[in-house]
Amino acid sequence: MQVQDKVLAEIEAVLQKITIVNISGESGTGKTSFALYLVSQLLQNEEYCIWINASEPFPKRRLEIMYKNHQRQLKEKLSQFFVAPSKVFPTIDDQSTFLRDLYSNGFPFPPSTRFIVIDNISHHLRFSVSQLNEINKRILLLDNFYNSELLPLILHCSREKIVLILIHEVSFNVKLQKTIPFFHTLYKRMKGLNIFLKQFKPTKKRVMELALGDQMKSYKFKIKGSGFEFW
């Protein structure tokens, strides 16, 4: 089995057991492109993905480039993505309302929905927290976000066997001396597959780390027009 197929097979095997995937990395490491590549590769016929434009628009052009030599496949893939809303959320309140609708039957799920992607889950929350000076208000905002919006959506996806893919922004943690997702203490409550994309400058070497519990694997990769190449 080629490394390319091995990586996808490993991830798909994990997704038979869990329904949460966290994709993190610095700007420009390919988080959105990888989520798009992963979903487009794993979607079977008559399966669908709900792609939520939280702070980034759906990368339609990237998908077109991936399948530019396979126009029939491209047409099929495009039909399997339901993009919502039509524009990114202007505020965290708009995002909150939408996420609540997702798990409260207010959103018209297409049949055989296999994936929900939120790109990205950190942006509006990070901004809202930055506007608060009092620690207790920050904690309250984070707890409300997790308990009222994220956790019910996680439970809904678990019941319906829908894989929830969350794309995260990152920052450098001085205490830990490493780059971690924003609000990592919030998201580490979730037992899921953690995918971290790294790019080393000036060599431009790229590495993808797959972590599940105490197990971790890493692969070098590069982004090509047709998607991702691993070795």
Number of strands: 11
CATH architecture field: 3-Layer(aba) Sandwich
Within the largest sheet, what's the order of strands? 3-2-4-5-1-8-9-10-11
Task: Tell me roughly what share of residues is in helical segments.
Answer: 25-40%
Give the overall silhouette. Answer: globular
Q: Classify the beta-strand content into a percent band.
A: 25-35%
Element string (H = helix, E = strand): HEHEHHEHEHHEEEHEEEE
Reported for the largest beta sheet, the result is: 9 strands, mixed
Domain count: 1
How does this model look, in words?
This is AAA+ ATPase domain-containing protein. InterPro entries: AAA+_ATPase, AAA_22, P-loop_NTPase. GO terms for molecular function: ATP hydrolysis activity. It comes from marine sediment metagenome. Helix content is 39%, strand content 29%. Helix 5 runs parallel beside helix 7. With 231 residues, the protein is α/β, with parallel strands linked by helices. The protein is globular and about 55 Å long. The chain has a single domain, classed as 3-Layer(aba) Sandwich (Rossmann fold).
Summarize the structure.
With 231 residues, the chain is α/β, with parallel strands linked by helices.
List the helices and strands and how they pair.
Layout: H1 3-14, E1 20-25, H2 31-42, E2 48-53, H3 60-66, H4 71-79, E3 81-84, H5 92-103, E4 113-119, H6 123-130, H7 135-160, E5 163-168, E6 170-173, E7 178-181, H8 184-187, E8 193-200, E9 205-212, E10 215-224, E11 227-230
Parallel strand pairs: 1-5, 1-8, 2-3, 2-4, 4-5
Antiparallel strand pairs: 6-7, 8-9, 9-10, 10-11
